[in-house]
Design brief:
Elements: E1 2-6, E2 12-17, E3 21-27, H1 33-48, E4 57-63, H2 67-84, E5 88-92, H3 93-100, E6 109-114, E7 120-123, E8 130-132, E9 144-147, H4 151-160, E10 165-167, H5 175-186
């Protein structure tokens, strides 16, 4: 069973995954991740009545996202993994978002996140996230779907330049998306990622 945490944005969430969603808890908050996450972890573990099935891995969102939220989520995840004696995996925000998108046509999914400084964190499949100006977004080779809290802006900017781009939910990453990706990693379907913060911009404050 995978215990997954996500706190890279304005949502704290925790999920238990065992081939399907077992339990989850979430709170949409821009601040206070360090105090919220332990409460959510306890909530989902109590719901599951731990002991029936043991946690075999912990997964956490690594960003891009807010510095404080990422640090809090990774600290909790690493502490839990150490206490449980299980591996800890990292999942990017774009990977978690894409895992939950409705994509029947199997189109490429780009994640577009507001970096809060006038630019967009863009994450494309197989490429590292980058921070770009809205009018400098790269043009896709074909139709794409966009997820994330800046998806509407990015889709409009791309469409204005002739691209076929459409924004779809989700806007905020959730731990269940982190769990889906982590399960694929453990099954050998995609490379594993270390649970280390993926920072794109320098901190706004010291």
């Amino acid at each position: 069973m995978i215990l997954a945490l996500e706190s890279s944005g304005a949502r704290c969430s925790v999920a238990l995954w065992d081939g399907t969603l077992v339990a989850e808890a979430a709170r949409d908050e821009a601040r206070g991740h360090a105090s919220i996450l332990p409460v959510l972890v306890e909530q989902v573990l109590v719901e599951q009545v731990m002991g029936q099935t043991a946690v075999t891995a912990v997964a956490a969102g690594v960003g891009p996202g807010g510095f404080t939220g990422l640090r809090a989520g990774l600290a909790v995840a690493q502490g839990l993994a150490l206490a449980l004696g299980v591996p800890v995996l990292g999942v990017t925000t774009g990977e978690a978002l894409a895992a939950e998108a409705d994509n029947p046509a199997n189109l490429p999914i780009w994640a577009a996140l507001d970096n809060k400084r006038g630019r967009i964190f863009l994450e494309r499949p197989g490429e590292p996230p980058v921070a770009v100006e809205e009018d400098a977004l790269p043009l896709p080779a074909g139709p794409v779907l966009l997820v994330g809290d800046a998806a509407e802006r990015a889709a409009a900017a791309l469409a204005a330049r002739g691209a076929v781009a459409r924004a779809v939910p989700p806007a905020l990453a959730h731990a269940r998306g982190v769990a889906r990706v982590a399960a694929a990693m453990l099954a050998g379907q995609c490379p594993r990622r270390a649970a280390e913060p993926l920072y794109i911009d320098a901190p706004a404050t010291t």
